[in-house]
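Support case: inosinic acid complex. Customer-provided input:
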Amino acid sequence: MSKKVIFATGNAGKLEEIKMILSDLDIELLSMKEAGIEVDIVEDGTSFEENAMIKAKTIMELTGEITLADDSGLEVDYLNKEPGIYSARYMGENTPYNIKNKSIIDRLEGVEGQDRSARFVCVIAAVFPDGRAFTTRATIEGLIGYEEKGDNGFGYDPIVYIPEYNATTAQLTAQIKNTISHRGKALEQMKEILKKNYN
Ligand code: IMP
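Agent response - structure generated as follows:
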């Protein structure tokens, strides 16, 4: 029988992406909703690792099943790595992203070239019922653009320009983004850890 693994997210898009990447593992991947869990988790950690662990540990304790969770965000070097772990909350959770993106572009006025460096960071945490816990971290490096470009993706995608692809992450197809993205790469690393540890 395949093992149950819960992914601690309410985000359907993330769950689909994760199902695709982990599809060759013999696991039954469930969202919190599918596992019958509804909780509001306070993410009061001071790093992506802490926040991902808080989410995974809370849900593992409620379900008794292996639980995965992610935490991600955008780091802009010129802004001392803001918005970082506050990426979703930057300027308020409900502020539209075209306003958040414009604010970041405006704060980089007069800043040129490599000084516009930024990255998306993703940390995946896994917590097992016996207490074993793991995290993986990956990034995708880019530069903050001068205007929003592209309609794919979500959030800060239209302002993160990836020089190697001559495109923002909002101009990449979902398939390409999944293979090169912070989340895709962190998940691939976690897949190897799961393969070694879930017996
Ligand atoms: P989380 O869902 O708590 O991990 O929040 C991550 C936040 O970081 C999102 O709400 C976005 O603002 C931002 N973010 C993370 N990954 C991406 C991405 O791939 N594209 C655009 N924005 C992202």
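Helices lie at 12-21, 48-63, 97-107, 174-180, 182-197.

Case will auto-close in a few days if no follow-up is received.
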